[in-house]
Structure formats: C-alpha cells, structure tokens
Amino acid sequence: MAKEQGEGIEAGMKELVKAVGAVSRANEGGEGSAAASDPLDRAEDIARLKACAARLAKVHVFTKGQLIRWKKGLKNKRNPAYGKPVIVVEVLEASVMDHDKDSAGTPYFREPLTIITGAVDTDGDFVCYHYDGRRFEPYTE
User: Could you tell me the pTM of the whole model?
Assistant: First the structure.
C-alpha cells in the first residue's frame, strides 16, 4: 500500500513540476516581474525551484526505527535542524491533515502528514512529531 501511495504522490509531483515550468514560461517578461530582474538571478531561482520540486517528488519508503533527515531546501518546520537525524516512530497508513491549519494562506494547508518521528529535545525528553514524509530522506553519516 505504501508503494502505491508513493507512486501516486510521485506522479502528482511530476505534474506539479510541469505546471511550475509552464507558469514560469507564461510569466516571462513584463515590467516588475521576475523576468525584469537580472537573468542570472532569475535562472538560479528557477533552477532552485525546479530542484526543490524534484526533491519533493522523489519518494522514499521509510520503516519504523529508520534514521531520517530533512531533504535540502524542504525544511518547513523549526525542528529538527538541517542534518540532524530523527527516528521514524511510525509510518501512517493514511495521511492526516492538521486541521489547525485550515487557511489556504499557510504553507501547512492540506499538508499530508505521513510519518511520526521521534527526537530528544533540549531537556533530554523523547518527543514525537508528525511530518510530511516527502520532505525527508534516509540519514547517512
């Protein structure tokens, strides 16, 4: 089931990458637009945008007990810090939505929370958090 879910998410992200490219091309030109800025800066921004979308589309299948970390450019929460590992406590069969974030004006709106991770906080206590698993990759030393 996780594999099928991952394939569906990956297909959706490929469509998103295509759409972002189409919007970028449609918005080229025009005073005050990104195209009016330095072409090198604009090219770097577009490359960064596409790279982040591609990383989000790359699906990893995690298992309980596995160490993971944020993918580059996809950290959208305060913790954990970039490069710091957390442990997978549970991979959710069905994603859950944070209903405290019901406004389309927040980046957390309808974010699918698919994994629960554990980490040791500054007090030495083990705490668990829900995250969008697409934003993580396996931790390697």
Answer: 0.68
